[in-house]
Amino acid sequence: MLVPSLTGSALAEARGLHLRCIATPETPLRDGARRIVRTALREILVDLLPATRESPALISVPGQPIRLAPPWAAVGLSVSHEPGLSLLAINLDGPVGVDLLRIATLPADSDAVARDYLGPETARALAMLPAGLQRQAFAVAWVRFEARLKCRALELREWTPELAEQLSTCRFADLVMPAGWAGAVAVPGERLRNASRSA
Q1: Exposure of 54 by Cβ count < 10 A (0-12 exposed, 13-18 middle, 19+ buried)?
Q2: Are 121 and 138 in contact (CB under 8 A)?
């Protein structure tokens, strides 16, 4: 398992935050990836929590994020899957959101997606970049957006000023990921201005 690192000092004080990248099957079918991640999650939690191997019970309901049963219901969990890799975040101190994206799989119409979901300011900034930099920049903006949605337990939806306000209450940081990938993590709190881009 690769432990992705936070760039710069973003979220450095979030001591309860634990991240793992886990190799999974190269298939869009997620059942195998889910099994692998849940096994890894249980093993990690046994080390982090005062629990026996049978203890931390995972609650998994289709369409809802995975979570822990009491007495650890306040521990935040977030998982993101792409064919070949899954990203797992555990926040012992509360909610967390994590997202990853394989840059090669980006849609051809990412400019339209940016306008609809990332908002006019981000869409304009992306459009002003040289063509060779736009895909990477879109991927970084997208994983930041998705990580903050997950942190706030919000479903994917198009940009509105109200949504932007909700998401502004999350701190996020980019993750140093393998080449060709983008990743971000978010926790509640004021937005950090020093989160640098992934290498």
Answers
A1: exposed
A2: no
| Burial class of residue 194 (count of CB atoms within 10 Å of its CB; 0-12, 13-18, 19+) | exposed
DSSP class of 166? H
Q: For residue 186, count CB atoms less than 10 angstroms from its CB and return exposed for 0-12, middle for 13-18, buried for 19 or more.
A: buried
Q: Which two tokens stand for residue 65?
A: 């994020």
CA distance 90 to 164: 24
Instruction: Tell me the pLDDT tens digit for each residue of 49-58.
Output: 876 656 678 8
Mean pLDDT of 38-59: 81
Element (H, E) at 187: strand 181-188
Distance of alpha carbon 12 from alpha carbon 185, whole angstroms: 12
Average pLDDT over residues 73-80: 94
**DSSP states of 112-133:** HHIIIII-HHHHHHHHTS-HHH
pLDDT at position 89:
94
Domains with residue ranges and CATH for the chain: 5-188 (3.90.470.20)
Q: At what angle do helices 120-127 and 131-151 cross, to 10 degrees?
A: 160
pLDDT digits (tens, 9 = 90+) for 133-153: 999 999 999 999 999 999 999
- pLDDT for the residue 10: 47
End-to-end CA separation in angstroms for the chain = 19
